[in-house]
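S.,

As promised, the WT7 run. Input:
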Amino acid sequence: MSKPETGQIDSVMQEDRQFPPSTEFSAKAHIGSMDKYHDLYAKAKDDPEGFWGDCAKEELHWFEPFQQVMKQDGSEYSWFLEGKTNVSYNCLDANIEAGHGNRTAILWEGEPGDTRALTYSELHSEVSKFANVLRGLGVASGDVVSIYMPMTPELAIAMLACARIGAVHSVIFAGFSAGAIADRNNDAEAKVQLTSDGLFRRGKILPLKETVDEALEKSPTVGKCIVLRRAENEVSMVPGRDFWWHDLMAEAADVCAAEPLDSEADLFILYTSGSTGKPKGIRHTTAGYNLWTKMTFRWVFDWQPEDLYWCTADCGWITGHSYIVYGPLSNGATVFMYEGAPNHPEPDRFWEMIDRHKLTILYTAPTAIRAFIKWGDEHVEKHDLSSLRLLGTVGEGINPEAWMWYHEKIGYGKCPIVDTWWQTETGGIMMSPLPGATSTKPGSCTTPLPGVVPVILDESLQPVPANQGGMLCIDQPWPGMLRGIWGDQDRYVDQYWSTAPGKYLTGDNARVDHDGYYWIMGRIDDVINVSGHRLSTIEVESAMVSHPAVAEAAAVGRPDEIKGQAIAVFVSVKGAEASEDLRAELKRHVRKEIGALAVPDDIRFTEALPKTRSGKIMRRLLRDIAAGKEAAGDTSTLEDFSVLAKLQGDEE
Ligand code: WT7
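Predicted complex:
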């Protein structure tokens, strides 16, 4: 390898396995061949306005037709101009009109084992009632409603009720602190807060209302709070401010016409953890987002009416917005929703539920898959998972080793795996296999969906050759794209559009192989520079995880006088002793797998890795620890502070 001059990233990963779809799967699929994919892809690329204009007319209900498909004004993009539609209408009324009122929309299971099912008609009626409740409290179109609720059907009902009347929801994951809620409420100037008494998590009750009470002391714009009864724990209600959900619903009429809303009316804000302290509210609007989630759900999950689909995410993340609520429901899908932890009462909870409900599609995160591997195959083997026909992953790159486990142990070798690459900002899936068409390669998100035109650039903004890593950008606008950062359009332009003018900067590095397959290499900020070679975190980590003793690994660079940076890897082991021998063996293993350049200088064993609440490894903190510094910066999204404390205190 020669030293790259332009900031390309050297790929050291070798992964040649390929898994074509079965002819049986392809025969029934929406997109059953690469020819069909190439055809769609070419149409969307060559004539985006024609392609998306036709899709929008066909897939969404229009109270008033749009006059123009797309308009660009600097870095601001608008879609389906002057059209009027309503996302709640598209998810509910449209399905009822199509004759699916009696189809189950949400099949729900609480952590204690209680279950509920709501048909599309029932959901429509609950949403209409709650929309009236919100209006009754003075919520009007454009007002922000802050949602801090458990994974119950009411969370989806609340989101859809906001969409019905043009209120903007800001869902905050129900694990965030009072301070984090207040920051988000203040940034959004939220008017109403929704919460519950508590929620069930690993058999315990998490007192959400208590946290909200503290948050509302510091949220001056929030005047009302609606509280769902869920856990029956004791709460204090502030007269005039706090109302019980069931009291208000008992009085509410179940008719509420969906308000015709402008295509570009704000649908929601979703805060992501920026690397600086200030929360960053990603803004998504009505028609484009609705269309993107509807189409991508059908393409990627090859959704069929008889499917029982489960996305294990929480509605507090974009995955829950797009692939629990809006994408599936606008297709008329039956969505399984689960409240609790994957290891309660036992580590087989997921497999037990899949078996009992006969679920057919499972969409989960690599971090969960690595946890299941660590907990042991016996929990999986107890159950019959043959109802599954498709598996998906999202959130991070999946290490090939974990991919193979998922394929064999969960998919019985027969289910296609869709490794879906996208971001809060992109609104929906951008790159993924199409399960009836694409031959998959473990660790690759394969190819872009129709309408997605990626480019990989080096630091001088030149496209890189095959197999060289560089900055992943998107070269053509797409309907689901973010429209801005709430209250801070300068930051939006600066962060996403100024590095490579006219192109959307994803912030990820990637390479494309000789077959045109994309391999995400991690965040741009996480690149490790060893003697002028820029290495990707995911490749080093995947080499580590391919050793049978390693459950999970996180690679970071630390300063090194000679090499610029040295590689430090934090490793959690499974079924082995953390020892000097293992350390030496792991170094040999990496040398053999990907070469001497990527051999870690430090290997630190740890019980667990610091993660965000959505399961992403916080490499930023690990970099500080590896460099011997106190972990600085924002830790408000860190899931478990004790992990960080242990890593810092542990001098080995
Ligand atoms: C970042 C976006 C997408 C919804 C959940 C996370 C990483 C996501 C993949 C994947 C490799 C992935 C990227 C991306 N990422 N999916 N399949 N392969 N990396 O949304 O919190 O906005 O995070 O997650 O780094 O930029 P998010």
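Residues 527-649 form a domain with the GMP Synthetase; Chain A, domain 3 fold (CATH 3.30.300.30). The radius of gyration is 24 Å.

- D.
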